[in-house]
Amino acid sequence: MKTLRDEVWNAALEELVARGKFKTADLLDKLDLSESQRQTVRRTLNALEEDGWLERESEQSGIWRLGWKGKMLLNVSEETIDQSRQ
């Protein structure tokens, strides 16, 4: 059985591979969660950032991009990575 944290991890990485970036709000809408579950999403995204899977320009930014570990280990094209910076 998948935990909410597993679902968030999976959804975030799927978005990164497909688009190179995503907004917190879009991920929250995609997962259709209660307010308390939304806090779990934010904590999970922060943990992914700490581990190098994600990065953002500032702590206030809601736009997440591939971190150093994601760039190294996920199968994401350079074109997708470049487009995510625009």
From TrEMBL:
The name this protein goes by in its record: HTH deoR-type domain-containing protein
Q: Does the keyword Iron-sulfur apply?
A: no
The upper taxonomy is: Archaea, Methanobacteriati, Methanobacteriota, Stenosarchaea group, Halobacteria
The HTH deoR-type domain is annotated at 13-56
Q: Report the GO molecular function annotations.
A: DNA-binding transcription factor activity
Kindly state which keywords UniProt assigns to this record, in alphabetical order.
Transcription, Transcription regulation
